[in-house]
Amino acid sequence: MRAKVLVVDDEEFNREMLEAILVTNYDITMACSGEEALEKVSHEPPDIILLDIMMPRIDGYEVCRRLKEKKETAIIPVVMVTALREKEDRIKGLEAGADDFLTKPIDRAEVLARVKSLLRIKHLYDELTDINTTLEQRVKEQVEELQRTHAERERLQKELEIARDIQQSFLPQVIPQIEGFELAAINIPAKEVGGDFYDFIPITEDKWGLVIADVSGKGIPAALFMALSRTIIRINTINNPAASEAICKANAFLTEESETSNMFVTLFYAILDTKKRSLTYTNAGHNPPLLIKTANGEVAMLEGIGIALGVTSDIDLEEKEIFLDKGSIIAFYTDGVIEAINDKKEEFGEERFIKVIKQNQDMPAQKIIEEIQQEIVTFSSNQPQFDDLTLVVLKI
Predict the structure, then answer these.
(1) For the segment 311-322, what is each residue's pLDDT rounded down to a tens digit?
(2) pTM flag (> 0.85)
């Protein structure tokens, strides 16, 4: 099905020019005023809107503001088309909710590229909505079936098994093979389902996004928010080479979703540049990964200024870049690793964590993870696991 584009401009020439550029690939609807645009959107919402700013009565800023205030139209991407070039004009547009800008005179290639990019993001968001709807429906159907055929204890156990299977499907099923680098990962929920997750996201041919995150809380609520967080982060990081910018955009969506759940997520996101052999990262309130330089035994913590996602929509995340020496190891982890306790209520801690890595630094990444896991099990003895445990090892 062809995407629907609404072109809004009070100048007939501009409307016809945009229609000529887009009509081959999209279904075009046109409006010559802000009032007509709002009326058409209310009757048949388009997939994207190209919106002129300077119009009589209701200008583009006000049209965009009204669209973004309504839940049913807030997700529609709005591209403001303007001859204004001042920074203040763009800031005003962003404050009104604009997703992108096109500057007059119009460039055909730029129009097609921006429309295609925003439609791809909207398509991914629509997929997220469908996934959530399907997830809710599947859980509802299973719960109803279990209520009819099983006792309460069996019903709950089955529900958790279903949620666990669904949650595990959101984690990477295959570890990417990256020339010159070695990756391994593990995720062990404290209960049947949990809130930790990791991800490997292709950015470009020579760049990979690495994610590790920890959702507040445990159980099914944390698992559902984990699925939502993972998808929103993917939407905003795919094809985006700016680490901090991508996560700040994801935070805006997560904050809106967390208003009812009161949940948040700590996250460390890094972009691995395989050509430069560098790591550009941002830390949103997460445990700083450990960088171990095996050549001299030096250990550094990849710290950064930033708060957890979903707390407030207005955040500022520090972005840093480091270059990676051959033989170095980076361990990304959640607090379940270092906060595992033994029967004396002692924590496993960073010191033991670092020691295990150094003792096995010549091993493959997967073997290092297995050794860490075994050390935690031995240390904890008969103590139950009280927090989710997630670990990613990157070996250069």
Answers:
(1) 998 899 999 999
(2) no
